[in-house]
Amino acid sequence: MTINNYIVNIIDKGSAVMWKKYIKPYRYETIFGLFFKLVEAIFELFVPFIVSLIVDKGIQGGNRDYIIKMGLLLYGLAAIGYLFALVCQYFASKASQGFGTGVRRDMFAAINAYDYKNIDDIGTPSLITRLSHDVNQLQVAVAMGIRLASRSPIIIIGSLIMSFYINSQLAIIFVVCAPLLALSIYLVMKHSFPLYLKIQNQLDKVSLVTRENLSGMRVIRAFSMQSKEKQRFQDETSYLNALQVKVTKISALLNPSTTIIVNIAIIVILYVGGMKINVGQLSTGEVIALINYMNQILLSMIVFANVILIFNKASASYRRVEEVLAIEPEIEYGTTQLSLDSEECIRFSHVSFAYEQAQALSDVSFQVKRGQTIGIIGGTGSGKTSLVNLITRFYDPSDGEIDLFHHSIKEYTQEQLRDMIALVPQTAVLFKGTIKENLLWGKKDANEEDIERALEQAQAKEFVDLMEKGVDSELSQGGSNLSGGQRQRLTIARALIKNADILILDDSSSALDFVTESKLRKSLQELEQTTLIVSQRISSLQHADVILVLYHGKLVGQGTHYELLENCPVYQDIYVSQNKKEDQS
After folding, report:
1. Lowest mean pLDDT, pick from 61-70, 75-84, 234-243, 343-352
2. Can you give 166-188 as a three-state secondary structure string?
3. Which end of the chain is more exposed for a tag (fewer CB within 10 A), N or C?
4. How far apart are the first and last CA of the chain?
């Protein structure tokens, strides 16, 4: 009997493959841990029998030497059992921690392979909870399975065998007691398991509220919403507390129910055993041994019941972990490297795209030639970011076709597609480390000259040079020790250093002042890359070769700045709203 059998029987036979995959690298640790724990359990089974011999032959017989000899034997069994238990603990810890490491590694790899839609479906807070709390529950289940789940059945079965060896009539009490104990465990499991699933889901909600409050702390304080958020957090944690109290109350029934059953059995043993002692059919030592074996069954049942509860929690966690590992990204990439010789860079042909609850783009068609600068403008929610997310293939369109360099975007390998596009996202994301380490995300083998040039083009060199360590200056998590404009310029530099065929700036200069943005715009005009600039400001786009105007997901205009001023009402409205005086040209 192995740890796999216990876990699989309690959780799901169809899930054996996953458990065997992560336990198999630690099969020797698992086997050794089980072996040492089983030997320790066998030694413990001899203790009540030896005690009965001491009572019958040593104490009642007045044999002092026999008492000392058997006492030393008990001491030796205890010492060896303790040593074996320590060895088992070592192997169980090694196997469980290795198991957890393997699960987390594969979960992290699976999450990194997800499409945006997959992440949207599960949610970031839930993924964090599954990667941390749920895996911890599984690790505990593996460790307890090796240390206790194998020991308890051996003690229970062994105690039953030893009781039959001592007196088969009194052993009937053990046979009656065992099913009653098993029934009490089953009833508790049946009612507690659904609650553990609810607890795990509620933990996701608590994690969501916590994450939102930590990331949006400044906004919460700016709007004096601390009290409301405290109440919101209190509501979620109170419900979590109520669930945990309820499941704890149900689980707490295990110990008293099993204790009552076993104590009744002990009373019966004492009563029947006393009568048999009076007629000479049983010795005092044998009655003591039977009571000790019953107590061993009680303790093992309690331990086993607690292990069952641990597995109950783990089974709920397992289903959530399995869900993460089972999700397959819907986007499939090509397998061959394609040429990029075409002068046509991007083509949208009747492209539509919808999120689950809203249409983002409808029947959008346009084409971009190599080296052109394309501006994309429109009101909030008009589909600007959705459009560039389709070019990077974070999502696939619902209808229509997208071609890059005369090849369908679906034919490119993921590596080639990522290499040909440099994206500056709407939110400036930097990572803890030095400025240089962040810039090298764009090009791993970039030299000092490449870094300097990218910083100059992004208008970031000025403030980087003022730092004490320059590009070796440390950034806090998310670049929080920089201003919003500085973070944006560094993310632009990170994209420029890549020198990709297509550069996408998704509203990435919104935090820059007009002077800095003007310098950045002139710098970008010198590039030979195909550049797509998403912006709310007409001043940021009016130099573009072509401007695309989006309105509620539809392409309502495309042309130069002056052409759109003449024939695109939506563009005219945007222009008027940003300029008090109409353009006289």
Report:
1. 61-70
2. HCHHHHHHHHHHHHHHHHHHHHH
3. C
4. 87
Pair of tokens at residue 33: 């841990």
Alpha-carbon distance of 510 to 517, in angstroms, equals 9
Q: Residue 92 in contact with residue 31, Cβ under 8 Å?
A: no
Helix and strand element counts for the chain (H, E): 22, 12
Is the pTM for the entire model greater than 0.85? no
pLDDT higher than 50, residue 583? no
Write out the two tokens for 543.
């130099």
The Cα 389–Cα 355 span in angstroms is 12
**Confidence at residue 1, expressed as pLDDT on a 0 to 100 scale:** 37
State pLDDT tens for residues 253-310. 877 887 788 788 888 888 888 888 887 777 888 888 888 887 887 777 777 777 777 8
* Highest mean pLDDT, choosing among 39-53, 128-142, 359-373, 507-521: 359-373
Query: How far is the C-alpha of 337 from the C-alpha of 469, rounded, in Å?
Result: 41
- Could you give the CA distance from residue 34 to residue 148 in angstroms, rounded to a whole number? 9
> Does the pLDDT value for residue 16 go beyond 70?
no
DSSP annotation of 265 reads H
Closest CA to 505 of 530, 539, 542: 530
Q: How far apart are CA 392 and CA 417, in angstroms?
A: 7
For 113-167, where are the alpha helices, taking DSSP H only?
A: 116-122, 124-129, 135-144, 151-166
Query: Which tokens sit at 343?
Result: 């002068």
Domains defined along the chain, listed by start? 3-326 (1.20.1560.10), 344-578 (3.40.50.300)
Separation between Cα atoms, residue 133 and residue 140, nearest integer Å: 11
Task: Tell me which long-range contacts 264-269 makes (C-beta under 8 A, separation of at least 24).
Answer: 265/173, 265/174, 265/176, 265/177, 265/294, 266/291, 266/294, 266/295, 268/173, 269/170, 269/173, 269/294
φ, ψ at 90 (rounded to 5°): -60, -50
Provide the 3-class DSSP secondary structure of residue 359.
Answer: strand
Structure tokens at 352: 């539509």
What's the angle, vertex CA 510, arms to CA 508 and CA 512, rounded to 5?
A: 100
The total of other beta-carbon atoms located within 10 Å of residue 432's CB is: 13
Q: Give the distance, in angstroms, between the CA of residue 63 and the centroid of all CA atoms in the same chain.
A: 64
Closest C-alpha to 193, from 301, 313, 304:
313
Q: How would you write 390-409 as a 3-class SS string?
A: HHCCCCCCCEEEEEECCEEH
- Phi, psi at residue 336, to the nearest 5°? -120, 150
Neighbours of 524 (CB within 10 A): 20
Q: How many residues does the chain have?
A: 585
Q: Which residue has the tokens 């065929």?
A: 501
